[in-house]
């Protein structure tokens, strides 16, 4: 039985060695160096500041949650690809720790298995030695019984022939003395044989009891050895499962890195197109502002020439615009660092977080310049509110799910569409912008 345990253990060690080599290879795949080009090292490695894999994963979860605002105007494909890769990278150290723990458990289980196999060998050797000793004792017992039987037979044949009979049958004094001495010797031998027989019987009885006790020990050692082998096999199965999980994560990381690189390239192309569109829009708005100012100046000059009073311009912009949505402010106007593409960009408006389908209202009366699809901004409406405080004021409403009006004039508070997540958006919200003479400005100046 112990030989079987040892053969199984040897084969397990061979498999464990192969497992270790495979793990070493998989770790080469799972290293942070496989992150997509352009992804900073901090995004590829586990969360800094901790060596606990589980704590590192929690830190990554917090990091991802904190980045949602920065990724709000990023395409959902890029955001999803980025977050999937970060979660996989955070899961890798946890999987590696699980594999290390499983391998340590295999080593411990194998050591225990060896110890139990040795104990089983010792118990069986003790049993075999006790059986051999009992066999020898039984042989001595048989010999003693034979001698005693012979003496008994002789006594039976010589029944009634005591020392007196022996003495009377002597022919000379020397013969008498010899006969008496011989008779005493025979009696001593007989007594010794009987004593040996009794001792052999007692020894055999004790040895039989000892063998039974040893058999109980052997059975117990056998069960312990079987349990140790089962434990080693379970540990090895757990190690194999942990390695498989690590391999899956490593392959997943490679695939996700490749996907992220592709999404980054697509995002960059979309951003380039958006920048061109923004530049075109800005030039159009600047031209409209110049034309509007020239027209306003011409009207004022005509009124003066006619001797009429020129209406005063609005001197304060604060409170001129109403809130376009009842949603809460999720992001303000200002520069933002893109955590994936690694560049600073202007967040040119104010975000109102609200459920998709929530009404969007015109912030002030004006004329719709355009309404339609505009790439990264999704469905957008632009409203010109005319010359206000010396500037041509235009508001835009972006990422809409659908329109209510697409042309003509609108009044303050009139529903013009509904909140959505169209274009480069990762969630339902209204991206609201204000332009002064074609230049994007902080909407808080007017709200």
UniProtKB/TrEMBL annotation:
InterPro entries: Cell_wall_metabolism_enzyme, Dup_hybrid_motif, M23ase_b-sheet_dom. Its cofactor is Zn(2+). One of its GO terms (molecular function) is metalloendopeptidase activity. SUPFAM superfamilies: Duplicated hybrid motif. Residues 1-35 form the signal peptide. Keywords: Coiled coil, Hydrolase, Metal-binding, Metalloprotease, Protease, Signal, Zinc. Residues 346-443 form the M23ase beta-sheet core domain. Residues 204-284 form a coiled coil. This is Murein DD-endopeptidase MepM/ murein hydrolase activator NlpD.
């Amino acid at each position: 039985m112990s030989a079987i345990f040892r053969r199984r253990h040897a084969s397990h060690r061979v498999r464990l060695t192969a497992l270790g080599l495979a793990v070493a290879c998989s770790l080469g795949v799972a290293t942070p160096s496989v992150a997509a080009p352009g992804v900073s090292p901090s995004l590829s490695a586990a969360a800094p500041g901790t060596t606990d894999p589980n704590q590192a994963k929690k830190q990554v979860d917090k990091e991802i949650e904190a980045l949602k605002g920065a990724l709000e105007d990023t395409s959902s494909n890029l955001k999803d690809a980025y977050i999937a890769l970060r979660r996989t990278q955070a899961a890798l150290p946890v999987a590696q720790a699980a594999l290390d723990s499983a391998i340590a458990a295999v080593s411990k289980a194998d050591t225990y298995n060896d110890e139990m196999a040795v104990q089983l060998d010792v118990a069986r050797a003790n049993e075999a030695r006790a059986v051999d000793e009992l066999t020898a004792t039984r042989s001595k017992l048989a010999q003693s019984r034979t001698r005693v039987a012979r003496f008994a037979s002789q006594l039976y044949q010589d029944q009634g022939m005591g020392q007196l009979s022996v003495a009377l049958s002597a022919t000379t004094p020397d013969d008498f003395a010899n006969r008496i001495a011989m008779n005493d010797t025979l009696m001593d031998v007989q007594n010794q044989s009987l004593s040996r027989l009794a001792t052999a019987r007692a020894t055999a009885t004790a040895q039989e009891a000892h063998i039974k006790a040893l058999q109980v020990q052997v059975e117990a050692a056998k069960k312990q050895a079987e349990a140790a082998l089962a434990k080693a096999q379970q540990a090895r199965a757990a190690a194999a499962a942990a390695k498989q999980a690590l391999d899956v994560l490593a392959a997943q990381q490679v695939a996700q890195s490749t996907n992220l690189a592709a999404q980054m390239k697509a995002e960059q192309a979309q951003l380039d197109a958006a920048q061109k569109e923004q530049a075109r829009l800005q030039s159009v708005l600047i031209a409209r502002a110049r034309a509007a100012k020239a027209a306003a100046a011409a009207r004022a000059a005509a009124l003066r020439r006619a001797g009429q009073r020129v209406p005063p311009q609005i001197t304060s912009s604060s409170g001129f615009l109403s809130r376009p949505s009842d949603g809460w402010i999720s992001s303000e106007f200002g520069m933002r660092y893109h955590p994936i593409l690694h560049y600073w960009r202007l967040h040119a408006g104010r975000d109102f977080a609200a459920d998709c389908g929530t009404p969007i209202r015109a912030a002030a009366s004006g004329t719709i310049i355009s309404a339609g699809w505009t790439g990264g901004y999704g469905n957008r409406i632009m409203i010109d509110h005319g010359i206000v405080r010396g500037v041509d004021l235009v508001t835009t409403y972006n990422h809409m799910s659908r329109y209510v009006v697409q042309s003509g004039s609108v009044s303050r508070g009139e529903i013009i569409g509904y909140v959505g997540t169209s274009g480069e958006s990762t969630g339902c919200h209204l991206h609201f912008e204000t332009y002064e003479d074609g230049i994007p400005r902080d909407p808080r100046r007017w709200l």
